[in-house]
Amino acid sequence: MTDLILYIGNKNYSSWSMRPWLALREAGIAFEERLVPFDFAAGNPAFAEFSPTNRVPVLRHGDVTVWESLAIIEYASELFPERRLWPDDRSLRARARSISCEMLSGFSALRAQCPMNVRRTPSAIALSDATKGDITRIEDIWQHCLDDAGGPFLFGTFSAADAMYAPVVNRFEIYRLSDNPAVLAYMKAIKSLGAWQEWEKAGIAEPWVIAGDEV
């Protein structure tokens, strides 16, 4: 039995939960998954039992509690340095962390207008100028990283940065947000991951429907 417990929300909707789950699973780090769905109007009161913010995801490791997606990934990378969740090169690691923090704190227009939804039938929607700006910036980040690394992932092999942008891959797919060949190739690489396919299958099978995330 692993001593890592990862609390997550709905796999269909929870982009924040997907990031550390995908990072740990793809890196081969064993953990116990505990899914607590947010099928109430405002989250789930049960979150308070394990989360200091009443949100997911949360990682428990003995007496240690870690919350927020990127903090969980950082903690796991310190526990398991041999799994190489970040690039070995210091300058590349700095860039990977920079774009991961940008994902964590930015792109609010894209988040609001195009929520993650694994079950959604892909189709385009009308986009605000702010959302278009977010899309352009993400395309630029991916293109730059892929050009430098040669693909298939942002820093050559799968890393924490790819996990941080994985929910955007879902958004780009289900809202038809890009026709850039490099972007589409990167999305294909992410979607080919065993961890991605496991998450997607489970998300599609979930019974919960959150009206506010159905665009």
Structural summary, described in words:
The protein is α+β, with helices and mostly antiparallel strands and 215 residues long. The protein folds into 2 domains: 4-83, Glutaredoxin; 90-197, Glutathione S-transferase Yfyf (Class Pi), Chain A, domain 2, CATH 1.20.1050.10. The chain is built from 8 helices and 4 strands, in the order βαβββααααααα. It has a 4-stranded mixed beta sheet, covered by helices on one side. The radius of gyration is 17 Å and the shape is globular. The mean pLDDT is 95.
CATH classification, class level of the largest domain? Mainly Alpha
Structural class: alpha+beta
Overall 3D shape: globular
Regions with pLDDT < 50 over 5+ consecutive residues? Answer: none
How far is the first residue's CA from the last residue's CA?
40 Å
Please work out how many helical segments DSSP would assign.
Answer: 8
Radius of gyration: 17 Å
Can you tell me the CATH topology of the largest domain?
A: Glutathione S-transferase Yfyf (Class Pi), Chain A, domain 2
Relative strand content = 5-15%
CATH architecture of the largest domain: Up-down Bundle
Number of strands: 4
Could you estimate the helical fraction of the residues in percent? 40-55%
Domains, number:
2
Largest sheet, described in full? 4 strands, mixed
Task: List the defining traits of the structure above.
single chain, 215 residues, alpha+beta, Glutaredoxin, Glutathione S-transferase Yfyf (Class Pi), Chain A, domain 2, 2 domains, 4-stranded mixed sheet, 8 helices, 49% helix
